[in-house]
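Our consortium's second objective concerns turning raw sequence data into structural hypotheses that experimental partners can test. To show how far this objective has progressed, the report includes one record in full. It was chosen at random from the queue rather than selected for favorable results. The single chain below, 215 residues long, was entered without modification.
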Amino acid sequence: MSKETKKKVSDENFDTKESVEEEEKDSSKGEKSDDSKDSNDVKEDSGESNEDSKEDSSVDNKKSSKKEKKEKKSKHQAIIDDLNDKVMRQMAEFENFRKRTEKEKGQMYDMGAKSILEKILPVVDNFERGLDSAPEGDSFADGMKMIYKQLMTSLEEAGVKEIEAEGEEFNPDYHNAVMHVEDEELGENVVVEVLQKGYMYNDTVLRHAMVKVAN
């Protein structure tokens, strides 16, 4: 074999080696690019899954926070309702206490006034007897009559008034019958005479009228 032919063969072998190496490089580059693409795809998938998990966790957190807020509101509302109920009960109890004390005060005042007026009534009776026996036209008697009139006016302003009896039908709630007479001209159970005046204090009997009843 000549030198020229050897040189050609060696050149051809070198060219084939270079072409093979280049093909191997290209194939390795392609595999690397494919691997990078696959890794990128995996990364993208993992990123999407992470984003989905973040969204799910945020939704769960929002729901839990809403539930906690609702529970807090319900607890606070229950406390407010309980306090309102206690306040209303205390107000009702205080109102009942106020009414009860006012009623008791009124009863005590009436009892005290009645006891005093009952002691004054005999004085009024004696005053009237003295005026009945006083002579007409006496200046002293006239002065006593004026005082008596002033006294009766003061008693009326205090709630005392005389019980109507003479000529009225006998009523045991207001009259005390101590005598009976038979008179055909008069009706049955009619008061013909008042022996002692009776008096009312507001709506209660201060003293029954002592009367004489016909038939």
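The partners drew two points from this record. Strands lie at 160-162, 175-181, 190-196, 199-201, 204-207, 209-214. The first strand starts at residue 160 and ends at 162. Both points have been shared with the crystallography group to help prioritize constructs.
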